[in-house]
Design brief:
Elements lengths: L13 H9 L7 E4 L4 E2 L1 H8 L6 E4 L2 E4 L4 H15 L16 H12 L14 E2 L4 H12 L3 H8 L7 H20 L4 H19 L4 H28 L4 H28 L5 H24 L9 H9 L3 H10 L3 H14 L2 H29 L6 H11 L3 H9 L8 H19 L5 H17 L12 H20 L4 H24 L7 H6 L2 H15 L4 H26 L15
Antiparallel strand pairs: 1-4, 2-5, 3-4
Helix pairs in contact: 1-3, 3-4, 7-9, 8-9, 8-10, 9-14, 10-11, 10-21, 11-15, 11-16, 11-20, 11-21, 14-15, 16-20, 17-19, 18-19, 18-20, 19-23, 20-21, 20-23, 21-24
Length: about 600
C-alpha cells in the first residue's frame, strides 16, 4: 500500500475505521483494505489508484476520492450502527471476512447514488481467504501469474491496428515502463511526440531528399512516442484532464502540421500542392466526423437488430478478416507508416495522391457499412443522441433563426436529405460560378436556410447522423474551392489555416461530448458564426476582394480570429476542474 502512495493505519473495527478516515484531510483519496488481502499489487493498483473514477472496489479493497468520501462515510456509519463496534458476523456466528465489508460498503454507496467502479482483473488475483487452505490456494494462484507481464500487456490497447500491434507495441510498452520508472509523465511523452512531429514537418519543409528522409524517420518516431504516452498512462494509471486534452488534439495537430510541411517543401521545389494538402485534411476531418456522428447517434440506442452488425460480429471470429478490415480503413498507424515511407522515397505530390486515394476508399468502405447498419437496424434513438448530433452540427445564428421561426420538415429522411442537398448546392455553386460572383453569396444564403431546416426537429432518424458530416464537407470544400479558384498567391495556405482552426473546434466539440460535459458554450459557436455563417463570410470575402491579395489577408485574419477564440476557450475548459479525464481507447480512423 505504501508503494501505491498511501499512508497505512490499522483499524480494529468499522467504528475505528470511520474515525481514522474522518481524520484524513478532505481533499485526499482514502482506501479500506483487509490486512489479510492476498493478490497482486497491480490488482490493488487498478482498484485503488485510477484517478478517473470517484470510487472503486476489488475483492478485499475499496477506495473513494474526495467527491465520494461523504458517501463512504455514510456507508460506514450505517455498517457501524448495524453491527456495533465489531465486525459483521454471518450465520451461526461465523465471522464474515473483510472482503464482505468493502463489498457491502460498495453496495451501500451504489444504492445511495454513488457509482463504484469494479475494474476487470482478468488473470490477476484479489482475495481475502477465510482459512489456511484458502490462503494457500490464493497464494499459489497469485504466484502462478506474472504481475508485471499482465501489467505490460494491459498497457496496450486491445483493438489497435495491424501496424501498431505488430510493429510498434511489442517494444513501445517497454519504453513506457522505462519512462514510468524514471518518473516521466504521459503528458511529457505526448509533448515530446508533438515536438518530434513538428521537427519532422520542418524537415519536410526543406524540400530536399535528405530532409524528406529525415521527416519520414521522425514521423515514425513521433508515432512510437504517440503510442508510448497512452501505454504509459495505462501502465502507471496516470490519467488527467490535461492529458485527455493533449491526447485528443495533438494527433490531429501533428498530422496536419506535417501536411503543411510537405506542401512547403514541394513549393521550394516548384510544385504547388497546397490544394492537395488541404484536400487531404478535409477528407480526413470528414472521415472522422462520420465516425463520431455515427457513434454518438448509436451511443445509447435501445436495440441493435442489424444483420450487418451480426455479419461483422461473425467475421470477427475469422482472425484474418479482423486484421484486413482494420487495415483497409487506413487507421492512424497504417496511415502514418504510408506517409513516412512515401515521404522518404517519393515526392509530396505522390504522398498526397496516395492519401487521397487511400482515405477515399476507406471513407467509402466505412460509410457504406454504417449506412447498411442504419437502414437495417431497429433502434430508438434517445434525446441524448439527438442533442449530441445537434451540437456536432455546429449551427450558427442564421440556421438557429430558420430552425426556430422557419418551416419544419417532416419525414424520417428529411433532415439528411436536406443537409446533403444544401451542401451539394453550395459546393456546386462554388465550383461553377465565376470566382467572386454574387450568385455564390446567394447560394450561401440558401445553404444557411436549408441548414436551419435540417435541424428544425430532433435528429432521431435512422440516417440523421449524416447531417453533421454533410455540413463539414460543405464548409471545408467551399473554403478549399474558393481559395483554389482565386488564383491569389497565399490564398490556399490561408485557407489551410482557416480549415485547421475550424477543424480544431469540431474535434474539441467531439471530445467534450464524449466526456459527458456537453458541447462548447453557445456563445462560442455564435461568435465564430457556425458552419453556415462562416460559409457566408468566405463567399462575401471572395466577392469583395475578387482576385486581389486582400482576399488572402482576409482569410488569414478570419483564421487567426477563429483560432484565438476557439483555443482560448478550449484551454480554459480543459485545464478547469470540471473537465473530464477522458482518454480515447478507440482510435479514430
Amino acid at each position: 500500500m505504501r508503494s501505491l502512495g498511501f499512508d497505512v493505519q490499522i483499524a480494529a473495527d468499522v467504528s475505528e475505521a470511520a474515525r481514522l478516515l474522518s481524520a484524513v484531510p478532505a481533499d485526499r483519496r482514502v482506501a479500506l483494505v483487509d490486512p489479510r488481502f492476498v493478490g497482486h499489487v497491480h490488482a490493488l493498483r487498478l482498484g485503488l489508484t485510477d484517478p478517473r473514477f470517484p470510487a472503486a472496489t476489488v475483492p478485499g479493497a475499496l477506495t473513494a476520492q474526495p467527491e465520494s468520501r461523504p458517501a463512504l462515510a455514510r456507508a460506514l456509519d450505517t455498517a457501524a450502527e448495524a453491527v456495533g463496534a465489531g465486525l459483521p458476523t454471518g450465520p451461526a456466528g461465523v465471522p464474515v471476512t473483510d472482503r464482505t465489508v468493502p463489498g457491502r460498503l460498495a453496495l451501500a454507496m451504489d444504492a445511495g447514488g454513488t457509482t463504484v467502479q469494479r475494474p476487470e482483473l482478468g488473470s490477476l488475483v484479489a482475495a481475502v481467504p477465510t482459512d489456511g487452505p484458502a490462503r494457500e490456494a490464493a497464494q499459489l494462484a497469485r504466484d502462478a501469474v506474472d504481475d508485471e507481464a499482465v501489467r505490460l500487456r494491459s498497457a496496450v490497447k486491445a483493438h489497435d491496428g495491424f501496424f501498431t500491434t505488430f510493429f510498434i507495441s511489442p517494444y513501445s510498452r517497454y519504453i513506457a515502463r522505462w519512462c514510468a520508472r524514471r518518473g516521466l509523465t504521459p503528458n511529457q511523452v505526448t509533448t515530446a511526440s508533438l515536438l518530434t512531429a513538428l521537427i519532422a514537418a520542418g524537415s519536410a519543409a526543406t524540400g530536399t531528399r535528405g530532409g524528406y528522409v529525415a521527416a519520414g524517420v521522425l514521423l515514425l518516431l513521433s508515432f512510437v512516442l504517440d503510442c508510448t504516452d497512452g501505454q504509459l498512462a495505462r501502465y502507471s494509471l496516470q490519467y488527467s484532464t490535461m492529458g485527455a486534452w493533449l491526447d485528443a488534439t495533438f494527433d490531429r495537430a501533428k498530422e496536419y502540421a506535417y501536411y503543411a510541411g510537405l506542401a512547403l517543401g514541394a513549393a521550394r521545389g516548384g510544385d504547388d500542392v497546397w490544394a492537395l494538402a488541404l484536400g487531404a485534411m478535409v477528407l480526413q476531418a470528414c472521415r472522422h466526423v462520420i465516425d463520431f456522428s455515427f457513434n454518438e447517434a448509436n451511443h445509447d440506442a435501445v436495440a441493435n437488430s442489424s444483420p450487418t452488425a451480426a455479419l461483422s460480429t461473425k467475421l470477427d471470429s475469422v482472425g484474418w478478416t479482423v486484421w484486413l478490415r482494420r487495415m483497409i480503413v487506413l487507421p492512424i498507424g497504417e496511415r502514418w507508416a504510408m506517409i513516412a515511407v512515401l515521404t522518404a522515397v517519393t515526392t509530396p505530390r505522390i504522398v498526397f495522391y496516395a492519401l487521397l486515394v487511400g482515405c477515399s476508399f476507406a471513407a467509402c468502405y466505412t460509410t457504406a457499412g454504417r449506412l447498411l447498419r442504419s437502414l437495417t437496424r431497429k433502434a430508438r434513438r434517445t434525446d441524448r443522441a439527438a442533442r449530441a448530433l445537434a451540437d456536432l452540427a455546429d449551427s450558427g445564428p442564421p440556421a438557429e433563426a430558420v430552425a426556430r421561426f422557419g418551416p419544419r420538415l417532416g419525414g424520417s429522411w428529411s433532415a439528411p436529405v436536406t443537409a446533403l442537398l444544401a451542401g451539394a448546392l453550395m459546393v456546386a455553386s462554388a465550383l461553377t460560378q465565376p470566382f467572386g460572383s454574387w450568385h455564390t453569396i446567394l447560394a450561401a444564403v440558401v445553404y444557411a436556410m436549408f441548414s436551419g431546416m435540417a435541424v428544425s426537429r430532433p435528429l432521431k432518424g435512422a440516417l440523421d447522423w449524416l447531417v453533421p458530416p454533410a455540413f463539414r464537407a460543405a464548409e471545408y470544400c467551399t473554403v478549399l474551392i474558393l481559395a483554389a479558384r482565386s488564383d491569389v498567391p497565399g490564398a490556399l495556405p490561408a485557407a489551410f489555416g482557416l480549415v485547421s482552426a475550424v477543424a480544431y473546434h469540431h474535434y474539441d466539440t467531439v471530445y467534450r461530448i464524449r466526456g459527458g460535459t456537453g458541447a462548447p458554450p453557445r456563445w462560442l459557436v455564435r461568435t465564430i458564426g457556425g458552419h453556415e455563417g462562416r460559409v457566408l463570410a468566405v463567399t462575401v470575402l471572395a466577392a469583395v476582394f475578387t482576385r486581389t491579395s486582400a482576399f488572402t489577408a482576409a482569410l488569414t485574419t478570419l483564421a487567426v480570429a477563429v483560432a484565438l477564440v476557439v483555443l482560448v476557450e478550449s484551454i480554459r475548459f480543459w485545464v478547469s476542474s470540471g473537465a473530464p479525464a477522458v482518454h480515447d481507447e478507440g482510435e479514430p480512423a
